[in-house]
Amino acid sequence: MSSNPKDVTATDRERAKAQRREDLLSEATRLFAIHGYAGVSLEDLGAACGISGPAVYRHFSGKPAVLIALLVGVSQDLLDGGREVAATGDTAAETLKRLIAFHTDFALARPDIIQVQDRNLETLPAAELQLVRKLQREYIALWTEQLHRIHPQETNAVIRFRAHAAFGLLNSTAHSAHSPRTSKAGLRRLLNQMAASALFTPVG
Questions:
Q1: Are 29 and 113 spatial neighbours (Cβ–Cβ below 8 Å)?
Q2: What whole-number distance in Å separates Cα of residue 57 and Cα of residue 30?
Q3: What is the pLDDT of residue 13?
Q4: With 70 labelled, which of 4, 80, 101, 130 sits at a CA distance of 20 to 30 A?
Q5: Is 122 exposed, middle or buried (0-12, 13-18, 19+ CB in 10 A)?
């Protein structure tokens, strides 16, 4: 650790700037989910974090850059988390159960970002949209690899359909998880069981 006070001060500034950026992304997720991407200005975003609209430019080049950071970031987070689960060396069945639990926890913890992605993915510039699609394909591949081991007789199309059906089920929590009447613990168990049924049950 540096004993130079200037170095310590610079590090503190960097930490504060990084935290401000995270705060802006968190508030952007919330505001975009409530009002829509088009309905939120940089002034709105800055005000939510206690700064002016122009001050947001210290962290992002504009509102499109905020959306890019959100949607690329969440796709990378899912892929990184999925890879960590898949690297445990468990059987295909156990790995798939862990992937289900991982995605369920993600969907329950971050329903706002699911809504933002559903509504605004096609708004991304072409290069960033292509990157998100690539990250998504790699994430799906973690699931289909396990499904091929569990259902070796099924075609690639059926395997992919199973995976996408499970994602549709788990991601649908973005529309219900905010309800104060919803028990997160009960919903987690239900989603895990329903997704497992969709993924493990043989097709007759």
A1: yes
A2: 19
A3: 83
A4: 101
A5: exposed
**Alpha helix locations (H) across 36-155?**
42-48, 63-86, 92-109, 111-120, 126-150
Predicted confidence (pLDDT) per residue in 127-171, tens digit: 999 999 999 999 999 999 999 999 999 999 999 999 999 999 999
Residue 197 and residue 156: Cα distance in Å, rounded? 19
Nearest to 139, CA basis, from 99, 98, 93:
99
For residue 179, is pLDDT > 70? no
Residue length of the chain: 204
Euclidean distance between CA atoms 195 and 173, whole angstroms: 13
As given in the structure block, the two tokens for residue 130 are 């292509």
Segment (H or E) for 31 = helix 5-35
Residue 50 gets the label, from left (phi > 0), alpha (psi -120 to 50) or beta, of: left
CA dist 90 and 60 (Å) reads 41
